[in-house]
Design brief:
The complex is a heterodimer of chains A (260) and B (384).
Chain A: E1 2-7, E2 9-11, E3 33-35, H1 37-53, E4 56-62, H2 68-77, E5 81-85, H3 95-109, E6 113-117, H4 128-136, E7 140-148, E8 154-160, E9 165-171, E10 174-178, H5 190-197, E11 201-204, H6 206-209, H7 246-256
Parallel strand pairs in A: 1-4, 1-6, 4-5, 5-11, 6-10, 7-10
Antiparallel strand pairs in A: 2-3, 7-8, 8-9
Helix pairs in contact in A: 2-5, 3-4
Chain B: H1 7-34, H2 39-47, H3 66-79, H4 81-101, H5 104-115, E1 120-124, E2 140-144, E3 147-158, E4 165-177, E5 180-189, E6 195-197, E7 211-222, E8 226-227, H6 233-269, E9 271-272, E10 275-276, H7 281-309, H8 315-340, H9 350-358, H10 368-378
Parallel strand pairs in B: 1-4
Antiparallel strand pairs in B: 2-3, 3-7, 4-5, 5-8, 6-7, 9-10
Classes of the chains: A alpha/beta (260), B alpha+beta (384).
Chain lengths: 260, 384
C-alpha cells in the first residue's frame, strides 16, 4: 500500500504569532518552525498502517525552503521518501490553491491512501483534506479518531461528531484526516535521524507539477485579509455563586457548551 | 571554531527535549516524591534508542557517538536528573566497559540487551571505605578452577537493584605484586547466588533513580567473565571515568539550564507588589548570571567532547568541564530556589528538586577536589 502523508511546517504552537502588516500574511521568519502537531498523528498513523501492510510512506509538504526540516522529521520517524513542493509563486496560497497544488502532485504519482492532520495550528480551516479529496474525486473520511486500513481495498474510520462518532467506510484510494490523540506519535530515534539523511527528497516546482502560477499564490487567493487587529484581552470568567444549586448551574453550563 | 551541534545532533536534541518536556515533566515529580523508579519512562527512553546512542549497530546500538549521548543527557537533565543519571550510568558505566574491554563473547552476550535498554548494567567500584582511592579496595576475587569466587561490599551503586538490572561489573583485588594490589573487573550477572542488594539508600536527591549497597558473598561466576585484562581493572575504569566526566558535565549543564527555564517562567508569572517579580533588576541579574553559567557550562562540555572525539588529549578539559558545570549547577539551583521564594523549597516545584539534585554533582564521578587535583597535575605543578 502506498500512503502519502501531507505535513505542514507551522510556527511553533506555543510562540506568539504575528501577521506581517505589509502582506497581511503570517510572519514566518520571526518564529521557529515546527511540524504541525496534528500532522505528527497523521505521520504516525501512516507509519502504523504501512508497518502492518508492508506499505510505503511518502511525506509531502508544500512550503518555503525551511519546510525541509519538517520533511526530515517525518523521514526520521520512519517515512520512506519525501516530496517538497517549493516555489516562490506559492507564497500566500489559500486553502483552495494549496489543495490544487497537492492534488496535482498526488494525481501524477498515485496513492492508495492520502492522510492529513485535520487542521493546521496556524490557518485552522480544516478544509484542505476535503478539497484535495474533491479534486482527486476520492472518498473522504475526515476527522477520524480511529482508522482501519487492512490493505484489502477498503478503509474504515471512526469519524468524530459533536455527540460521538460515525463509523464510515470507503474503498481505496481514499483521503483521510485524523484528529488529535488517535495515536501516540513516536519520537525519532538517532538511527532514524541518521537514516533520514540518506532518504530521497524530491523538490517539485510549479512548472514541474504542471501548475499555472496564476492559479496559486497570494494573487489567486479567493479570500483577502482586509484588516487585522490584535486579539482582545481575555474577558474575566463567569463566577457561579453556590446558593445550594451550584451543581445544577455547572451542569447546565457544561451541557450548554456541549461538554456533557 | 565551531561548537554548534551537527544537524543530526540538533534533531536528536529536539526529540529528547520534546520527550522530556511532554512525557517526563508532567509525571516525574510524583515518582520523585514516592522515591520510585520510573519504569514506564525508562522503557520509552529505550524505545527512542537512548541506551544505544554511542554504540555501533552490530551490537544493537544507534551508531551515534559520545556527543550524542551527552546531548540526550543534557536535555533530560533540564527536566529531571534522576532519569538523566539512570541513562548516564547505564551507558557510561554499565555498557561502556564491556564494549571497550570485554571479550567478543561477553559483548555478543550482553551488549544487545544493554544497548536496547531492555536491561540495565551497573558498575561497582566504590566501596564503603574506597572511592577515588583504589588502593583501599577490599573486595576480593580468587580463581577456583574455572570460576571466580568474589567476596566484598560495594557502595552507592546506581541501577544495581531495578527489576531490569541485568549485571553488575565489579572491581576486585585478584592478587598482589610488590605490595601493590592487582585490581580486575569481573562481570556478575543479576540473580547470581550470593549477590544481593540492600534496601534503596535514602538520598538527599536523585530520588527517582536506583541506588543500593551491593553485597557479594562467595559469588561464583565463570573465569571468562573477566572484563579486559587481569590486573588492569582500575586503569581501565579510570580511562572510562575521563569520558564519564564529560557526560556528567552535560548532565550538570542540563540542570543549570533547567534552573534558568524555571526561573524565567516564574519571573513572568509570579507577581509581587502588583507586578511580575521579573521586573525587579535584582531578579533579572540573578537570572542573567544563571544563563551565563549555563551557557559556559555547555561550551565546556562540548569542547571537551570535541577533543575526545578527535582523539586529542582531553583529561584536563574533562576535569575542568566536570568541575565548572557541577559548581554552576549548584549555584544555579541555589539562585533558582531563591527566585522561587517559598515555592522553591517545595519538592513539587522543579526548582526544589533541582536544589536537592545539584549537590551530588560536586561529589560523584570524582569530587571537585579530585578534579582540581587532576588539573594541577596536568599543569605539572610541583608535588601534584
Amino acid at each position: 500500500m502506498k500512503i502519502v502523508v501531507c505535513v505542514k511546517q507551522v510556527p511553533d504552537t506555543w510562540s506568539e504569532k504575528k501577521l506581517d502588516p505589509a502582506t497581511k500574511t503570517l510572519d514566518r521568519a520571526s518564529v521557529d518552525g515546527v511540524m504541525n502537531e496534528l500532522d505528527e498523528y497523521a505521520v504516525e498513523e501512516a507509519l502504523k498502517i504501512a508497518e502492518a501492510t508492508s506499505g510505503e510512506v511518502v511525506v509531502l509538504s508544500m512550503g518555503p525552503e525551511q519546510s525541509t526540516e519538517t520533511i526530515r522529521k517525518a523521514l526520521s520517524m520512519g517515512a520512506d521518501a519525501g516530496i517538497h513542493i517549493l516555489d516562490d509563486g506559492l507564497a500566500g496560497s489559500d486553502a483552495v490553491a494549496t489543495s490544487l497544488a497537492i492534488a496535482k502532485v498526488i494525481e501524477g504519482r498515485g496513492a492508495d491512501l492520502v492522510i492529513f492532520g485535520s487542521e493546521s495550528t496556524d490557518a485552522r480551516m480544516s478544509v484542505v483534506p476535503a478539497m484535495v479529496a474533491e479534486r482527486l474525486g476520492l472518498p473522504q473520511l475526515t476527522f477520524a479518531n480511529k482508522v482501519e486500513a487492512p490493505g484489502d481495498g477498503t478503509v474504515k474510520a471512526h469519524r468524530l461528531t459533536d455527540y460521538g462518532y460515525d463509523v464510515v467506510e470507503a474503498s481505496t484510494p481514499a483521503v483521510i484526516s485524523v484528529v488529535e490523540k488517535i495515536n501516540e506519535p513516536r519520537y525519532p530515534s538517532f538511527k532514524g535521524i541518521m537514516a533520514a539523511k540518506k532518504k530521497p527528497v524530491e523538490t517539485i516546482s510549479l512548472a514541474d507539477a504542471g501548475i499555472e502560477s496564476a492559479s496559486v499564490g497570494l494573487g489567486a487567493a479567493w479570500s483577502e485579509v482586509a484588516e487585522f487587529a490584535d486579539a482582545p484581552a481575555r474577558a474575566a470568567g463567569t463566577i457561579v455563586t453556590d446558593e445550594g444549586d451550584g451543581g445544577t448551574k455547572i451542569a447546565d453550563y457544561l451541557s450548554e457548551q456541549k461538554f456533557i | 571554531m565551531d561548537l554548534r551541534l551537527s544537524d543530526e545532533h540538533e534533531a536528536l536534541r529536539k526529540a529528547v527535549e520534546a520527550f522530556a518536556h511532554d512525557v517526563v515533566g508532567p509525571v516525574i515529580g510524583d515518582y520523585y516524591a514516592r522515591g520510585e523508579f520510573p519504569y514506564p519512562l525508562v522503557s520509552q527512553m529505550a524505545e527512542m534508542g537512548l541506551f544505544g546512542l554511542p554504540f555501533p549497530e552490530e551490537y544493537g546500538g544507534m551508531g551515534g557517538d559520545y556527543a550524542a549521548l551527552c546531548v540526550a543527557i543534557e536535555e533530560l537533565a533540564r527536566v529531571d536528573s534522576s532519569i538523566a543519571i539512570t541513562l548516564e550510568a547505564a551507558v557510561s558505566l554499565g555498557a561502556m566497559p564491556i564494549y571497550r574491554f570485554g571479550s567478543d563473547e561477553l559483548k555478543a552476550q550482553w551488549l544487545p540487551k544493554l544497548t536496547s535498554g531492555q536491561m540495565l548494567g551497573a558498575f561497582g567500584l566504590t566501596e564503603p571505605g574506597a572511592g577515588s582511592d583504589a588502593g583501599g579496595t577490599r573486595t576480593t576475587a580468587r580463581l577456583d578452577g574455572d570460576e571466580w569466587v568474589i567476596n566484598g561490599t560495594k557502595a552507592f551503586i546506581t541501577n544495581s537493584g531495578t527489576d531490569i538490572t541485568g549485571l553488575i561489573t565489579v572491581t576486585a583485588v585478584t592478587g598482589e605484586h610488590d605490595g601493590r594490589k592487582e585490581i580486575s573487573s569481573i562481570l556478575v550477572p543479576a540473580g547470581t547466588a550470593g549477590l544481593s542488594v540492600s534496601e534503596p539508600y535514602k538520598k538527599v536527591g536523585w530520588d527517582a533513580s536506583d541506588t543500593h549497597e551491593v553485597s557479594l558473598v562467595d559469588v561464583r561466576v565463570p573465569a571468562a567473565n573477566l572484563v579486559g585484562q587481569r590486573g588492569r581493572g582500575y586503569a581501565q575504569f579510570l580511562s572510562i571515568l575521563d569520558e564519564g566526566r564529560i557526560a556528567i558535565a552535560a548532565l550538570a549543564t542540563g540542570l543549570a539550564q533547567g534552573c534558568v527555564d524555571e526561573s524565567v517562567r516564574y519571573a513572568h508569572d509570579r507577581e509581587a507588589f502588583g507586578r511580575p517579580i521579573g521586573t525587579n533588576q535584582a531578579v533579572q541579574f540573578m537570572i542573567a548570571d544563571m544563563q551565563m553559567r549555563a551557557h559556559l557550562s555547555r561550551l565546556s562540555w562540548r569542547e571537551a567532547a570535541g577533543r575526545m572525539q578527535r582523539g586529542e588529549p582531553f583529561k584536563q578539559q574533562a576535569a575542568i568541564a566536570k568541575l565548572y558545570t557541577s559548581e554552576a549547577a549548584m549555584d544555579n539551583a541555589r539562585a533558582a530556589t531563591q527566585v522561587h521564594g517559598g515555592y522553591g523549597f517545595m519538592i513539587e516545584f522543579p526548582a526544589g528538586r533541582f536544589y536537592r539534585d545539584a549537590k551530588i554533582l560536586e561529589i560523584g564521578e570524582g569530587t571537585s577536589e579530585v578534579q582540581r587535583m587532576l588539573i594541577a597535575r596536568d599543569l605539572g605543578l610541583p608535588g601534584a
